[in-house]
Design a protein that fits this description.
Blueprint lengths: L17 E2 L8 H10 L32 E6 L19 H6 L8 E6 L3
Antiparallel strand pairs: 1-2, 2-3
Length: about 120
């Protein structure tokens, strides 16, 4: 995800990178939500990836799993500027119409795995 605060003022779905580690929330409502989440875990702005390395493709449990610390999904140039940043259509889900207009077989993201912060 890009941020729990969304991407205010930008309705282009592909405007920003998505990561499994994001910044702390900055909006009032999302800070309250973060406080609630923090009652269950100390690290609310990250999704761990260790489970991805626990099992081989054949289903065998791995003795020494290898997995990235962070994944970055960088919008590919094919779609990064495909849509306007201005809101159009009716309601906050109008961007779904944009997504239906993405040409078949388009490159959506370049994905990078990082082994450290």
């Amino acid at each position: 995800m890009y941020s729990v605060d969304g991407q205010p003022g930008n309705w282009n779905f592909f405007a920003n990178e998505w990561k499994n580690w994001i910044q702390q929330p900055s909006g009032s409502a999302t800070k309250l939500l973060a406080a609630k989440f923090a009652t269950a875990t100390d690290i609310i702005q990250a999704v761990g990836l260790s489970d991805w390395g626990m099992t081989a493709q054949c289903g065998k449990k791995m003795e020494n799993p290898v997995f990235p610390m962070q994944l970055r999904f960088v919008p590919h140039e094919d779609v990064a500027n495909l849509f306007s940043s201005e809101m159009h259509g009716v309601g906050p889900m109008a961007y779904m119409d944009d997504l239906q207009a993405v040409p078949a077989n388009s490159n959506l993201y370049s994905v990078y795995g990082m082994d450290g912060p």
